[in-house]
């Protein structure tokens, strides 16, 4: 859906959690479609009891581990479900959403202008002022909306000294080059080279067991292939083959703020039943309702301190010797993982660091 020159930023953990939550109220074919296309079924089949609640128990544990504990980084998630107020929400659904997803299913009046400002203030507070104006305008005829926002603030184990940041060329494509703020540091970093996919992969650690993988294709034209070949198995292969050594790392500063309506993306994956009049959501309401809007919003800032600026400390810098250079001077992918749960929190593509 995005063009090759667009930056992309999504939070897979947020999307799948929102879909898990929604599936509590789905029945029949609609439920089946979501569970098989999003591979929730695999977890149910792997469990000893083949119970459908397995998946919700897993999400409950995951949510608790990721968002409700403090490990030296801040990770907050907003997962709200709003349903037009003339559709009564079943109590059982409300209770389960709260119990398994720590979320609220609430009645809303989408035609009331105050609804937008109230919701925006709620999200502004929860994301510590980072996600502003999550909602801008909503069709008053909307029946149901899922709102999913994630906020992450971490600090690098190996910080980038601010005095080393300099202007540097970044190749957008075969023809264009832009100047970017390039951060620079030196330290022990894990990295690997994937000859099959023709790319280099670097791991940058955050304090608290989260890390960011930076994936840089050798050829500018190699991004397309890389995007289509990216699977959990490939990432696992990278993580297993990484070696640790002293490296000089050059990485552009960037800030991405993205706001998507995921309805089309989910439809293109084959999840169609959810969004048409034949959908079976009898576990949510006795009346026929349709999801009109699935808002997914995230923001990430990558700077010298980590993600989100904090007090600046200077790091003594060693003269460069013959260590290996990892220079991120062309479009790249990034993936943010939490290690204890092997959960993919965020992923994105930086085609142009000067744009959001």
UniProtKB/TrEMBL annotation:
SMART domains: SERPIN
Domain of life: Eukaryota
Protein name per the record: Serpin family D member 1
GO molecular function, one term: serine-type endopeptidase inhibitor activity
Family matches, as InterPro entries: Serpin_CS, Serpin_dom, Serpin_fam, Serpin_sf, Serpin_sf_1, Serpin_sf_2
Domain Serpin residue range list: 2-353
CC terms in the record's Gene Ontology section: extracellular space
